[in-house]
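Q: Convert this sequence to structure tokens.
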Amino acid sequence: MPWKGATVMERRFEFVLRARSGEESISHLCREFGISRKTGHKWLKRYKDRGSATTLFDQSRRPHRSPQKTPQKYEKRVIELRKLYGWSGRKLKKLLQAEGIDLSRSTIDRIIDRNGLIGKRDRRRPAVKRFQRSKPNELWQMDIKGEYILRGVERCYPLSLLDDHSRFAVGVFALNAPSRGQVMKCVVECFEEFGVPDAMLMDHGTPWWQSKNGHGLTRFSVDLIKQGIELIYGSVGHPQTQGKVERFHQTMKRSLKHRGVPQDFAGMREALREFRYIYNEVRPHQALDDDTPASRYTPSRTPYDSHPRQWSYPEGADVRKLNSAGCLDYAGSRSFISEALAGERVWCRRIDDLLVIRYRHMYVRELDLSTGRTTAVVRPVEAKDL
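A:
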């Protein structure tokens, strides 16, 4: 099942939808969802107070008042010292203590941050969580390396797919454009040879992410979802969450530089093919106790399905097909859902004056039937949430 395991947001949606229908008791639903009655009523109240399912997202825990807020004169002094020296909280703490100002390093760093005194370089941080899957094909990392300019005119965009557990390079391809068609052709080639992974980790780039529709879905990502793949996206501006494929690209860059970067596509394809072989079969990998990635990798048992079956919605569900622009016709009006879902079947679930749209197992959009307002409600899982 794509994006395995319902998210907290999806469970809250389902609970509120069923509770508001009045067909089941709150006590029964709380037991089924494994929550207390207090929590169940909290979700219902949050929805009722705001009249929107988007309020089921976790709310900020920041207090309305801050009795322990740093005095303005102290904050002003932190800003002055930061501008003077450019130092972080660790060093500024010493200077402030000498002036009789006792602030923690974290407080000083927060003052620096909220006053916009941290540059892009300083914002680089370690990955939120260093993780490694326990066996092959639980997660593949996918990324496109920045362009190589060939003969001053042609451009090459290396596409890499790397198994998270074994570091096995499932595929390395030379593309002349990072288009959906070219990327999908390469990905399908990997699926046909090595099977389908449980999940894939990517950044917020094309062709697998679209910022305009509110929840990132593209036709490429929908194609992956139909294969039952869970989609995971790295944190924006922090490539560390894709550390393995980033390091892989660094290794590839050094290899191409040592060999001499080819100046035509035929040469790049051959160079990447040779690099992939040496990386997988010959080069000892320090993180694998000097084993090779190929010695740790086995293909997936999940075969690629060239004709995925239509999703089966519950009996009696109000299922409708979106038009070629990704719009839904409902109650005499037309509303945009997602261009990535053009022609797809969705489940329309009404709750009071709201219509919640579900694609396969994901809630994707909410329509306010009284105002015509439409809102994206579910965003893909990010690596920081793992």
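The mean pLDDT is 81.
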